[in-house]
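Inverse folding, one chain.
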């Protein structure tokens, strides 16, 4: 079984957009308790196949076979470097972020926080993705925030908001999906 109901959201999104193909390398940010990692590992076949899943969260998880997990605050300045070390010279094909901060109940504050986490995931995506790669991140209804959308449109060929049915109807979460990464910005 899956460790989280969230697993069904990723299944639904991936059944439609086919991001998690066999052999792909995936980074799963905000991975605890590990439902998305289970789905990603099965689909890229990271156990015994060529695919690879690197996962990170503030909290420890029970090991998921085929998943390289680390405890990490994705907003730490050295988070990108730690992820790149775990990739061991490889680049990623997909960066997933289901990260969420605990709700304050203050709508604007919660919105800013989740955007901040999505931006931290984008920092990592920009530094690790292969050209053509994809980024999927949780945001809140009302969208991804103008700055984040602008960055995504610059960096990727296609940007869309996705609301899986498995996301409860009363839940304010949506996901932003960016595909066709144009390549890392020039160093400098
Ligand atoms: N996708 C997961 C699954 O299927 O099991 C569920 C993820 S849960 C909704 C959100 C996670 O984001 C929490 O485990 C939380 O610890 C993590 N998170 C929040 N802020 C984070 C941060 N700054 N760095 C890393 N993880 C973070």
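Residues assigned per position:
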């Amino acid at each position: 079984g899956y460790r989280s109901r969230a697993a069904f959201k990723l299944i639904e999104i991936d059944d439609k957009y086919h991001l998690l193909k066999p052999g792909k390398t995936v980074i799963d940010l905000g991975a605890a308790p590990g439902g998305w990692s289970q789905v990603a590992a099965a689909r890229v076949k990271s156990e015994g196949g060529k695919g690879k899943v690197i996962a990170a969260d503030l909290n420890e998880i029970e090991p998921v076979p085929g998943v390289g997990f680390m405890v990490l605050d994705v907003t730490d300045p050295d988070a990108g470097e730690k992820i790149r070390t775990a990739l061991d010279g490889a680049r990623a094909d997909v960066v997933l972020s289901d990260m969420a901060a605990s709700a304050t109940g203050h709508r604007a504050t919660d919105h800013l926080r989740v955007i901040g986490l999505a931006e931290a995931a984008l920092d990592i995506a920009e530094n690790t993705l292969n050209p053509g790669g994809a980024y999927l991140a949780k945001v809140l209804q009302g969208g991804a925030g103008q700055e984040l959308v602008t960055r995504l449109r610059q960096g990727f060929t296609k940007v869309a908001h996705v609301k899986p049915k498995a996301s409860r109807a009363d839940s304010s979460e949506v996901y932003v999906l960016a595909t066709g990464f144009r390549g890392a910005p020039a160093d400098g």
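The chain has one domain: 6-181. The mean pLDDT is 93.
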